[in-house]
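Structure ticket #2291
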Amino acid sequence: MARPWALSALVLLVQGGLTGWLMRRGVGGRWARGRVGGSLLLLGAAACLALPLVDGAGAKTALLVVGFGLGGAFPTVAVTTVAELAPPARRGGALGTMNATVTTAGIIAPAVVGQLVDSWGVTGYESAVLLSGCSAAGGCARPSL
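Resolution: structure written out below.
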């Protein structure tokens, strides 16, 4: 199903346009990228977490499309935000660390989902979506400094 990626592409364009518009009006890049991207990620997490609350294939499909479509646009904002926040001498290392973290998650996630599906059958897929929603919501949490 290509719908989440199609939505993600559209969201990416809108997100970039809105972030650029905010920054041209004097809003800081950290605020603009963080708030716009974080809001989209939080909405995507909410859609994933709402999956068990709806009945019917159409409603579940819509939540999956929204959940993964909105969340899929966040990595591009993450790259520009890390590049903006990291000092120039450490930018390469910061981007490399972020890329290593994302890549490692991409290796681990299929094994976790496979284990869930092997253990619980179809319910394992729903559990995997819920786990994705929790992870995305956790990514929206503001760390206390």
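Closing remark: The mean pLDDT is 88.
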